[in-house]
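Hello,

Following up on my earlier ticket. Below are the two sequence lines again, exactly as submitted.
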Amino acid sequence: CSESDLGPISLNWFEELCAEAPP
Amino acid sequence: AVAEQLAPVLPDGLREESLQLVSKLKDCSSSCAVDVSTMWWEAAGCRELCVVTACESSVSLWKPLGPNCWGRVYTWQLGEIPVIQIVPLPDSCNLACVALGDLEIGEIRLLLYSSENDSFKQSLVRTGNIKAALGLKDRRLVSSSRTVQEQHVEIVSFSETGRSRDGQTLMPPEETVSAFAEVEGMRDALVGTTAVNSVVIWNLKTGQLLKKMHVGYSYPASICHQAYSDSGLLFVVLSHPHAKESESCGNPAFRVVAFNPSTARSSGVLASSLPPGHAGRYLEGDVRGALAAAVLTSGAVAVWDLLLGQCTALLPPGPARGWALARWASTDACTGACLLAGQRDGTVCLYRY
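Thanks for your patience. The regenerated structure is below:
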């Protein structure tokens, strides 16, 4: 699968989602 | 003398991998085997990998006595509520959980051995309308339960002696959680699949629900088995027990789907389909690392390498009755993979893969 299929990829997705999600 | 080589029955003549029968055990008192698993058992300073078998009313622990010789160590009697499944606690010793209920799980019990006073015990861990349960590393158990109004997703952790410690609540999604999977290499992440075909991600440390991602309509009624995080993507191994064969998708037993958790977009990576010319479809199965095994409606057990998307071994149904259960054993890294294949009459065969 290519990046164009899946959108921009972040290696730190877990930390970023934790920062965005409600506590 | 008892070991026999069962080469994979593949039409293209692939013989790269095979399943070697190591030993066989038979529970003569059981007429209906429900589940099979493994459990580390340590008594008198000796730690051994034992086999755990479940029938409707009891769970038995079997230890190896010698080549192709197993002795029953203990049987936990579980009363009137039927056993539905064994819920192993990975990396634990002297502990396993068992789910009981009629049609759905109504309670989960902890089965344990206390080396201090050389005794076997059981204790009630959870009751309710339990939809899914999974044993996690570090002696933890996650389960989802549902009332008419709301869903609870909870983790209970056990001490080495089996005492329940303070539990933790995970934020529930709106939809019912149908299965859980740990994310390899990410200690604080847990994924689940839901009844409306989404994959959800939690932070195990904080209980936060981080993301909900739809699997896609081409992969109906997905059940998650395992997840890996790599290069910014989340790879989830899914099975589709209720899927019908289609011309476009063939007859896959397992699929690896890549999710971008940042955008919630997904893309199929590999499908592990039934061997060509083999009738039937996926019934139930188990995944460990890159290996998947499943019982098919034909009564055969198939093994796939999920990295190749190829069936690498097949156990034919046999002359009498077909296989009913296929589980990967917990093993040391040095001993390689071991498949437990069970028949409904209580016979369990151990194969080295």
